[in-house]
Write a structure and sequence with these properties.
about 500 residues, alpha/beta, Urease, subunit C, domain 1, TIM Barrel, Dna Ligase, domain 1, 3 domains, eight-stranded mixed β-sheet, 15 helices, globular
Length: about 500
């Protein structure tokens, strides 16, 4: 009689949603080391540690494709805002701003680079050094890094309010090429922001070609997401076509009251473009965005919450309108007095949010800003909100489709081999949650609150988060590269 195998960990009697969009099924899932070793009928596998998850869903650990966690993974590697949502992997360096490769010794970082930290935090003049720091910190989550276009401009240009010269573009290409060779997954841009707003398409195309040659990706916070959103989409499509690089449109939205409802048109043109080139989209499940406080973004017909302010830190969490009224000045004047600062802008329409989230090309990304004094609740609540409110409560899509948007779709898009699905020999990034109760607890008034209903998260086969006192957590994240790229962390 054959002695049954005994695995390191067995998740017993769970409901498996495997990340592909296929229907759920009941099974035991076994883990050896950092890999899934077996998937069998319920109650049939034995483990040195057996965890009964009857009544709960087990799915691939979620992949947050849009974060600004570049520094958080180093200074707070427990990554509680993310692991408490079931997130196993974060993509850093979005919106054109990345902590690496850039060393600042004299000047403070210009907005929005200051969302990542102050000048003493920009100490990595190579991606290799940043990767080394990540792996030494051993964060609770895996890390994928993009190189920010604005970061490159700050590194080589003395005046950001103009297009880069041919020589400066070549310097940026050289820095980017080296970072990609060392393990970066691609290039991001933030053309909306001052450090990159003067960049012309040719500059972006030349840089995006480097990402293409390395087998990487190009993600973009477009030049405009409100009145000129259509023109910005066309610029994005053309950049991707000319560079022959896969494109991700970051946090797609139709901002400003005049543009509410236009998502039907923007999604139509995205679909048309995607028929001829590789295009995907990420989005978060809220009708308010968050970024730096800008005078040109102030619309007194919408609510604006201050998330941080250097000269007036005590106002974090208060409405700009209330602050302006108290000071007996206009909101634009209050903006000047508060800056540098950050804000939440309630500038989107819920119908657009739902239409975008439901589109099959759309992945989920939190876009959380972890160093804000009073952050947007998306930092702690994005993924449970999609699963609870949008999937279960209002039925926008099935739970299987919600999980696909968080797992296999981003894993495929970012080239993360053997992640994002539950299958034999895939990495054991697994989240266990209660489909009946999972929900976001973070609100705009109380934005720092762990999600409800996430029971367990394993990252590379180790418990990274658990609500059970008998299961000790251990950080086991690592730096990840796209398939086809080599770094020491992947061997």
């Amino acid at each position: 009689m054959t002695t049954p195998l005994i695995y390191d960990i067995v998740l017993r009697n769970g409901t498996v949603i495997d990340g592909t969009g296929a229907p759920r099924y009941m099974a035991d899932v076994a883990i050896n080391g950092n890999r899934i070793a077996a998937i069998r009928s319920p109650g049939t596998l034995k483990g040195r540690q057996t965890i009964n998850i009857e009544g709960l869903v087990v799915s691939p650990g979620f992949i947050d494709v849009h974060t600004h966690d570049d520094r958080l993974v180093l200074i707070d590697p427990s990554m509680q805002p993310k692991v408490s949502q079931g997130i196993a992997t974060v993509v850093v360096g979005n919106c054109g701003i990345s902590l690496s490769p850039l060393k600042l010794s004299t000047s403070d970082p210009v907005p929005p680079l200051n969302l990542l930290g102050s000048k003493q935090d920009f100490v990595f003049d190579s991606m290799r050094d940043y990767i080394k720091a990540v792996n030494q910190a051993v964060p609770a989550v895996n890390v994928v890094a993009l190189v920010g276009h604005s970061t490159l401009r700050v590194a080589v240009m003395d005046d950001l309010d103009r297009p880069a010269s041919a020589e400066e573009t070549q310097q940026m290409r050289s820095i980017l090429r080296k970072a990609l060779a060392e393990g970066a997954a691609g290039l991001s841009s933030g053309l909306y922001y001052q450090p990159a707003n003067a960049a012309e398409m040719d500059e972006l195309v030349e840089l995006a070609k480097e990402a293409s040659h390395a087998g990487g990706i190009y993600t973009t916070h477009m030049r405009d997401e409100d009145d000129f959103v259509m023109e910005s989409l066309q610029e994005t499509f053309e950049t991707g076509r000319r560079a022959e690089v896969p494109v991700v449109i970051s946090h797609h939205k139709c901002a400003g009251r005049k543009n509410w409802g236009r998502s039907a048109d923007t999604l139509r043109v995205i679909e048309q473009a995607a028929a001829n080139q590789e295009i995907h989209v990420d989005a978060y499940p809220y009708s308010a965005c968050s970024t730096v406080l800008r005078a040109d973004a102030i619309d007194e017909s919408i609510r604006i919450i201050i998330t941080w302010s250097t000269p007036c830190p005590e106002v974090a969490g208060r409405d700009l309108a209330d602050i302006a009224a108290e000071w007996q000045i206009s909101q634009h004047e209050a903006c000047e007095r508060l800056s540098p600062a950050g804000a939440v802008y309630f500038d989107m329409n819920e119908d657009d949010v739902q239409r975008i989230l439901a589109h099959p090309l759309v992945m989920i990304g939190s876009d959380g800003i972890p160093h804000d004094s009073h952050p947007h609740p998306r930092l702690w609540g994005t993924f449970p909100r999609v699963l609870g409110h949008y999937s279960r409560d209002i039925g926008l899509f099935s739970l299987e489709e919600a999980v696909r948007k968080m797992t296999s779709l981003p894993a495929q898009r970012f080239g993360l081999t053997k992640r994002g699905t539950i299958a034999n020999d895939h990495f054991a990034d697994l989240v266990v949650f209660d489909p009946a109760t999972i929900s976001d607890a973070a609100t705009f008034e109380q934005p720092i609150a762990p999600a409800i209903g996430v029971a367990l998260l394993l990252v590379n086969g180790q418990v990274a988060y658990s609500t059970r006192p008998d299961l000790a957590s251990q950080r086991n994240g690592r730096f990840l590269t796209r398939s086809g790229m080599n770094t020491p962390s992947e061997h």
